[in-house]
Design goal:
Blueprint (H helix, E strand, L loop, with lengths): L11 H34 L2 H77 L6 E4 L15 E4 L1 E3 L2 E3 L11
Antiparallel strand pairs: 1-2, 3-4
Amino acid sequence: MTTTHAQPPETLGERLRQLALTVLLVLIALTALGLLAALVWLLCRVDLTTARLWAGLATVGLPVALLAGLGGGYALARSHLAGLERGLTTVTQAVQTSVGTVMNAASATADVRVRTAQQLRLARGPQPPPSLNVVLGAGAALPGGTPPVFTQSGLAYGGQQAQADYQYEYDPE
């Protein structure tokens, strides 16, 4: 089982901040305790009419304080949402700028590649169309006794001239 401990403050400023926070929390606790003690003392020393007056004011003041707190919380939430929206807008604009830069670079690279391929194609000059020769015949023999042959040549693959010969021998039987 591992235990985690709070890291000690590293700088003098952090130490002073922690000390000030501790003193503030102690003062708040003492003030709350003093108010509670004053309320108990007043309730023990006050007559019934005054106690009823304070109870009535507290009853009327409670919804007012509730509405004031609700309005303050609503305003705080709206300000947080506005800050989030502003931050998201800033990040979105930064991303769009970065993506636009990358897309412009990719487009320029593609243009260079296309232009280079077109220049190479034009430098080679016009190419003859692929040829296809088919010789078929039922029992036909060419001079020299060779059988009919299927030949294909002059195909272009990837900008390079490829020569291929495919032979099919015909057997009439």
